[in-house]
Specification:
The complex is a heterodimer. By secondary structure, chain A is of the alpha/beta class. Chain A is 28% helix and 17% strand. Chain A is built from 17 helices and 27 strands. In chain A, helix 6 links the parallel strand 18 and strand 19. In chain A, helix 4 crosses helix 15, helix 9 crosses helix 11 and helix 12 crosses helix 15. By secondary structure, chain B is an alpha/beta fold. The chains are: A alpha/beta, B alpha/beta.
Chain lengths: 652, 844
């Protein structure tokens, strides 16, 4: 037993000591905790940590195997995302105790705050007192035992799992119902209570999912895409696409869902031109060696940066939306081209970790597949707030894709129409976010960069918050970003275009005197080195490619990702379809595409007259349309259009 | 489901009059199958036509560049199929079988309009194989008279003499040839006329303005081994010729065929069907992976029981008592030769023999012509021809096909025919240096097949019969697809040619990305070309003539800057009321437009509205159950006391109306159809304490389906709000908006701009099964059940509420009514102006 005095050590120092001591198997006494946040975060050794006093936010968060005993109260999120192990809180717990636990046992002797056990997957959360509102909110599995009263709307939108209540069920949440308590259930609960020496003689009521919302009632008729020009630009007001939409919505009675990003033309990189005459771009075959391309991301504030061989990253895309083989091919290609890959929402697999050299691990509100072990083997951690294709909404994964294997890695029930929460349980605003960022840093010893993924909306405000909250970089996704499944109208009509997003972001930083102090990785509709060079010139630190990478690997842009039976084996979990995809072959195709990007970036940068991609700047660009000019504040110079046309004519 | 009209605002710019082609169409990229086809067949279009059941259109697409489509439907080597992108997934679309299906369906009795002779010059074509005949066809198309000289008594060359009937029945060949000869009255056929014996080149040159030599690769090559002079050793090409002339010779028990090409395949399968033959063995000097025979033919031969002996090379043939001994050695794969295949290397001490009764040598073909040879126009096995212009050394003489470039396939020979015709035409027109010939790629812009199973359907295999019941009759080896199979197979097509549904990943972008993914990083010229191609600007997507539209408004999502507890599945409040509680609505919607509809449509829509708890706006009520707001046209329509509300139509010119409530709970309001009226109408409405101001953005509310007459003018809402704001009386009257609303998203935008309730017209009509007519009206077919109509209306209103809520929630609101202008940005300048919403990237 070793004593750590938080009056002397900072939490960061203390957590380092705890981890060290843990490795030696030493139990720990923490004195003078003073309700500090993040006590014990990131511990993965089977030791006992006794906290002599109260703990703040996320005590025992992101841990595995350890046992915590807290003498007094805890703040928000006790046992956040805990795998195995246990926490005993002798006093009361704040909001979201046991959030996203995946097997841990948490016992709270007093009362507990709202949304207890939110998005929990497995394990037991037990409260001897009363729960506040919405206990079991969006839980995917596991068990909550409340020996006092349930609080309002217990089991709100739970997908699975059980909630036992000994006191009053104040009110049931949406899609929750009270059901018969089986003798086996009763026995199991009492056994659990006995194990923790909790005397109980009362009776229990059981609350479970009512099953009214897990699947869409009517499935949407699958239709292949109508060519975009028939419903955009100057097309008929009541064009075929509009009629198709109305036709289908009048059958299903809800919004339509589809894959890919916005379909109609938006002001985009094509509406921006280079000032310089580029007719000789690429004449020099060896242009790659003449331009500085290497780019570090996320190292500005002390973390080990991602080291990219060019200012390009792979955009976050999940295993789930994409098949395992596809994620594997992308990981392999990213390693071959020496850039970074990103897990997206669906968790990290060993194959993906092995294939990718540099891998960013993304965390979403549902905490699907999120865990301390994968965090510790990641090269970067990313908090997803939203994405360009569906900002303000959580992910959607249609039942067809929620296979057994996939459900396992995400920790959710099989075969539901998964609608991930759009918000993090523990991030309700800028102030919580700071604490969350710190928790991630604590869990990984401040080693890796922590980034935020943002769909472009109120960019001016969001970027300021991201900067103040201490992120190492931002992945900013314009409304041209794509998705595996999302509301069709959201893809089309929510968010702002990529070129407007980057401009607003940089203005925001300027407004708070932070120019150059936050790296912005821009994405959303990047197709080639030209788009990327324009992004860099507009001020992005690097760019990320997603859909284009899929296309390079065989996607035919049919936009049926949401259906789940992807003809090329990319956006599917059906083994019969997945086997159509050859990861080794496609990895090489993707790699060649990435190398094509490298060559284009170098050729353009060189032709513009810079020696380094980091010298690209706004003076290199002009806008070809009034809208692009207004969005980017570049000079409006339509006369450059003719020159670009002439360039194309050279080829044909 | 309506189909797109594939309008082409970007009409194709013809490359050159002589090379009509659609590749300059921004929304078209030739599919890999079309590129792989030597004659550029528009396969995706005909496949799509098949799915649509438009067989004659499919036929047009098939035959446009291919006068031997019936033949190709049976025996084309179909380079399109390995090129098909679906090959890597679950097998290529069976393009050839689909062609066969169409040709069998409509090819027999097609009566093509004749091509008249319009030119004075004439052309001689020597040889009536695929190269010669296609040259004939193309030249006739251009109006030339063409004389075809054929040494045998039949037209068709290797198509007729080289392919046995079990693969290509005689009548199929005849069909194509008849069609071609009927179509080309300018074609003069001279059968039994061999070059050199019956006519000389000089005579041809004298009679005609140009000569095309398409003499074919008619003669089998020798094996050059001892013993091949034995009469039981025969040449494969000759063997097939005899068979095709009708011979059915008695065969020995065992026949060995030497070679692995198409002639070998046909010869071995033909031999197997002949009387006396029990066993056929094919001897090939390389391994099975290197055999050049088409997979499907190889497979067929194997299924019919033919034995393949790989890695075996013949070295001599010796007669024995009972027949022949084919002396062989075993080979193994050596280092690769020029064409990338490994060179067979003889294994030491591997001599062995294969006993048989007959050897058929199919080890290659050659062209021969003593007459041309004497003139110095021949290389060893073909006419000396320049590929760049298809000319021989004689300025008037051109050459094409196998006889000029070595043995190949029917479709390749056909492409030579097109190519030579192109250069001959240029020559005859006196153009010395025409543009280099390029296979033209046309598209018929057929919408993609809307088949729900297109991703799942496996390759449809036609029924295979093999040798059949009476082999010596050479019955066909397999059946043509039935309609169902053809439909399924056609549904499988990816439609690589078709424009995608996404601007940013339009077909051109997608293909460029594909190209990048298949370009060697060291191929700097290719990289450079791609870069330049991609550097071109696009047309301005928001040209001046694009009107302001709700489409060009986007919502700003709440991210970090708005505090929201997960609103994702939390119901968003959509309730609203008009006239301070006089009318409560569960969603801010009304429906209009059914005043003049048939009574059954009215009944069904009324029921749908009742289920959706939605009111109706119109001159007459739909039923007694739902709230009805009456549209009163002063001096024409009398206000009704039964209505929940009365809205007096002011229209385009303000005139005070004598409007009053007929009972105390009635809503009262006016409707205004143009911005000019607002300055007077708004103060009037406020003065008279009206509850509602209805803004009609169509300018024609009350006339049937006014939304179909044109785009709505959304600026009326901006103007109304501005006037009310100036008066500081925004809260005193409820704005109801009508005009061109197509979704819940549109409704949310109108609410964000200041509307309180929106009125759907055409949306409800479409949901009830209506169809938009050419006369900007709506027609209701009797093909819907009453329930379908009602449910359609209920569902669309639910969907609209659901969509509008979604928009509200994503801006961080849990009440639809709380969307504000500040939650939106404009995407186009015109829309920014018409709504007062700033362009994205700008603060308000």
């Amino acid at each position: 037993m070793v004593q750590i005095d938080l009056a002397k050590d900072s939490v960061r120092e203390a957590n380092e000591k705890i981890r060290e001591l843990g490795k030696k198997g030493e139990d720990i006494d923490i004195i003078n905790p003073d309700a500090r946040h993040h006590i014990g975060v990131g511990l993965t050794e089977p030791i006992t940590v006794k906290v002599h006093g109260s703990a703040g936010y996320f005590c025992a968060g992101l841990t595995d195997k350890a046992n915590f005993d807290i003498e007094a109260n805890v703040g928000w999120g006790v046992g956040d995302n805990m795998y195995t192990g246990s926490v005993i809180v002798r006093g009361n717990a704040g909001a979201i105790p046991g959030v996203a636990i995946r097997g841990a046992e948490i016992i709270i002797h007093g009362n507990m705050g709202s949304r207890a056990g939110q998005v929990m997957k497995e394990g037991t959360l037990c409260c001897l007192g009363n729960a506040n509102f919405m206990a079991g909110y969006m839980m995917y599995g596991g068990r909550i035992i409340i020996l006092g009263d349930s609080g309002e709307r217990v089991g709100e939108d739970m997908s699975a799992g059980e909630i036992y209540v000994a006191g009053n069920v104040t009110s049931l949440g949406s899609d929750a119902k009270q059901t018969d308590l089986g003798t086996e259930d009763d026995h199991d609960v009492r056994e659990f209570l006995d194990r923790y020496k909790i005397p109980f003689t009362g009776t229990l009521k059981k609350v479970v999912n009512a099953g009214t919302k897990l699947r869409y009632a009517k499935s949407e008729e699958q239709v292949r895409s109508i060519p975009f020009f028939t419903f955009s630009g100057n097309s008929d007001y009541w064009n075929p696409k509009i009629q198709e939409d109305i036709h289908i919505k009048s059958q299903i009675g809800r919004y339509r869902v589809r894959g890919y990003g916005g379909a109609r033309p938006l002001p985009h990189f094509n509406d921006i031109a280079f000032r310089k005459d580029l007719s000789r771009a690429g004449d020099d075959p060896d242009v790659i060696s003449k331009v500085e391309l290497s780019t570090e991301v996320g190292g500005m504030y002390g973390a080990t940066p991602l080291k990219l061989s060019m200012p390009v990253m792979i955009a976050p895309m999940s295993y789930g939306a994409l098949s395992r083989s596809t994620k594997q091919a992308i990981a392999m290609a990213s390693a071959m081209s020496n850039i970074a890959e990103n897990t997206g929402e669906g968790g990290m697999s060993d194959a993906q970790r092995d294939a990718a050299d540099q891998l960013v691990f993304q965390m979403l509100g549902g905490r699907l597949g999120w865990n301390i072990h994968d965090m510790q083997r990641a090269d970067g951690l990313e908090i997803y707030i939203s994405q360009g294709a569906k900002p303000g909404f959580g992910g959607q994964l249609m039942a067809k894709k929620v296979t057994k294997e996939l459900a396992e890695i995400r920790g959710i029930p099989e075969g539901i129409d998964l609608r991930s929460p759009s918000r993090h349980p523990d991030i309700l605003g800028a102030d919580d976010l700071v604490i969350k960022v710190e928790e991630l840093r604590e869990a990984t010893g401040y080693r890796v960069p922590v980034s935020v993924k943002l769909g472009a909306g109120r960019v001016r405000d969001d970027i300021k918050i991201a900067y103040k909250d201490g992120f190492d970089f931002v992945e900013l996704d314009g409304m041209q970003g794509s998705t595996g499944a999302g509301g069709a109208e959201v893809a089309e009509y929510v968010g702002i275009p990529t070129i407007a997003a980057i401009t607003e972001a940089l203005e925001a930083l300027e407004e708070i005197d932070a120019t150059g102090k936050l790296e912005i990785i821009l994405m959303g509709g990047m197709r080639d080195g030209i788009d990327i060079v324009k992004s860099l010139a507009l001020g992005a630190h690097a760019a990320a490619v997603g859909t284009s990478v899929l296309i390079a690997g065989g996607c035919i842009a049919c936009m049926q990702c949401h259906v789940g039976q992807c003809v090329t084996g990319i956006a599917t979990q059906d083994p019969e379809h997945e086997k159509r995809y050859k990861p080794e072959v496609e990895a090489k195709n993707i790699h060649r595409y990435l190398e094509g990007l490298r060559w284009q970036i170098a050729a353009l940068t060189h032709a513009i007259g810079h020696k380094s991609v980091h010298d690209l700047n706004r003076n290199d660009l002009v806008a070809l349309t009034p809208e692009a000019a207004e969005m980017t504040k570049l000079p409006y110079a339509p006369e450059y259009r003719e020159r670009e046309d002439a360039l194309r004519a050279q080829v044909s | 489901m309506s189909r797109d009209k594939t309008n082409n605002s970007t009409a194709p710019r013809p490359l050159m009059a002589e090379l009509p082609d659609d590749t300059s169409d921004l929304h078209f990229v030739p599919a890999p199958c079309q590129i792989a086809c030597p004659v550029g067949t528009d396969a995706p279009s005909y496949i799509a036509h098949i799915w649509d059941g438009e067989y004659e259109k499919a036929y047009e697409a098939i035959t446009a560049t291919n006068p031997f489509s019936s033949i190709c439907g049976r025996v084309c080597d179909a380079p399109c199929e390995p090129a098909c992108r679906r090959t890597d997934s679950d097998g290529p679309v069976q393009i050839r079988n689909l062609k066969r299906f169409v040709m069998d369906k409509v090819g027999h009795d097609y009566d093509p309009p004749p091509l008249s002779v319009t030119q004075k010059q004439t052309v001689a074509v020597v040889g009536s194989g695929p190269a010669g005949m296609v040259a004939v066809h193309d030249l006739c198309e251009s109006g030339f008279e063409v004389h075809l000289y054929e040494m045998t008594d039949r037209l068709g060359g290797m198509m007729i003499w080289g392919i046995p009937a079990f693969r290509l029945p005689q009548h199929v060949i005849q069909e194509d040839i008849d069609r071609l000869t009927q179509r080309c009255p300018g074609l003069k056929v001279h059968l039994n006329t061999a070059l050199g014996t019956d006519i000389s080149l000089d005579e041809l040159k004298q009679r005609h303005d140009a000569v095309i030599l398409a003499i074919g690769s008619w003669w089998g090559k020798k094996m050059e081994i001892p013993g091949e002079e034995d009469e039981r050793v025969i040449d494969g090409v000759q063997f097939l010729r005899d068979i095709n002339a009708g011979a059915r010779p008695e065969m020995p028990e065992t026949v060995v065929v030497i070679g692995g090409g198409d002639v070998a395949m046909d010869a071995c399968r033909a031999a197997l069907r002949l009387p006396g033959c029990e066993k056929v063995k094919v001897v090939y000097r390389r391994g099975s992976e290197d055999i050049p025979a088409r997979k499907i033919e190889l497979q067929g031969a194997i299924e019919e029981g033919i034995e393949f002996i790989y890695n075996t090379q013949q070295i001599a043939i010796e007669p024995t008592n009972s027949g022949l001994n084919l002396q062989c050695v075993t080979t193994e794969a050596g280092p690769p030769d020029e064409d990338g295949r490994s060179r067979p290397v003889v294994v030491e001490n591997s001599e062995h023999f294969i006993p048989c009764g007959m050897v058929i040598a199919a080890v290659g073909q050659q062209g021969k012509c003593e007459h041309l040879n004497k003139k110095g126009m021949m290389l060893t096995d073909r006419v000396d021809t320049n590929w760049e212009n298809m000319r021989t050394d004689d300025p008037k003489v051109f050459a094409a096909g196998d006889g000029a470039f070595g043995g190949s396939t029917i479709v390749m020979a056909m492409s030579h025919g097109q190519r030579v015709a192109y250069y001959v035409k240029a020559f005859l027109e006196g153009r010395d240096s025409p543009l280099p010939y390029k296979t033209p790629y046309k598209t018929r812009r057929v919408p993609v097949a809307q088949d729900q199973l297109w991703e799942k359907l496996p390759v449809q295999e036609p029924v295979f019969h093999g040798v059949g019941e009476n082999p010596v009759e050479f019955p066909e080896i397999e059946d043509t697809y039935g309609r169902e199979d053809a439909l399924k197979e056609a549904a499988r097509c990816y439609r690589c040619d078709a424009e995608t549904g996404s601007t940013d990943y339009a077909v051109k972008h997608r293909e460029d990305i594909f190209t990048m993914a298949r370009t060697n990083p060291l191929d700097h010229n290719k990289l450079k070309d791609t870069l330049k191609e991609r550097l071109g600007a696009r047309k301005n997507p928001y040209p001046d003539e694009r009107l302001a539209t709700l489409d060009d408004l986007a919502f700003l999502p709440a991210n970090l800057s708005r505090l929201v507890i997960d609103p994702y599945r939390e119901a968003c409040n959509t309730k609203t009321e008009l006239g301070e509680g006089k009318m409560s609505l569960s969603s801010p919607f009304l429906v209009t437009g059914f005043d003049d509809a048939e009574s059954d449509v009215k009944r069904d829509v009324g029921r749908g509205l009742a289920l959706a708890d939605c009111g109706y706006l119109g001159i007459k009520p739909l039923n007694d159950e739902i709230p009805w707001i009456q549209l009163v046209i002063p001096d024409q329509i009398e206000p009704s006391g039964k209505a929940s509300g009365l809205i007096y139509s002011i229209g385009h010119k303000f005139k005070p109306v004598d409007a009053k409530r007929l009972n105390e709970n009635q809503l009262l309001g006016i409707s205004v159809s143009s911005s000019q009226t607002l300055q007077e109408a708004i103060p009037f409405a406020l003065e008279n304490n009206f509850d509602v101001l209805l803004l009609d953005a169509t300018g024609a509310l009350g006339s049937p389906w006014s939304e179909l007459k044109g785009n709505p003018d959304i600026s009326i809402l901006r103007d109304a709000v501005n006037i009310l704001r100036e008066l500081d009386r925004e809260e005193e009257i409820d704005l109801v908006y009508f005009g061109g609303l197509r979704s819940g998203t549109d409704a949310a935008k109108v609410i964000g701009l200041g509307g309180k309730v929106v009125v759907y017209g055409v949306v409800a009509g479409l949901a009830a099964g209506g169809q938009i007519t050419d006369q900007h009206s709506m027609h209701f077919e009797a093909d819907r059940t009453s329930d379908d109509r009602s449910e359609g209306v209920t569902s669309i209103l639910k969907a609209c509420a659901n969509e509008a809520s979604m928009m509200a929630r994503c801006t961080g609101k849990t009440n639809l009514m709380n969307i504000e202008p500040e939650d939106m940005r404009a995407i186009s300048s015109a829309t920014a102006k018409a709504t007062g919403i700033p362009v994205a990237g700008n603060a308000e």
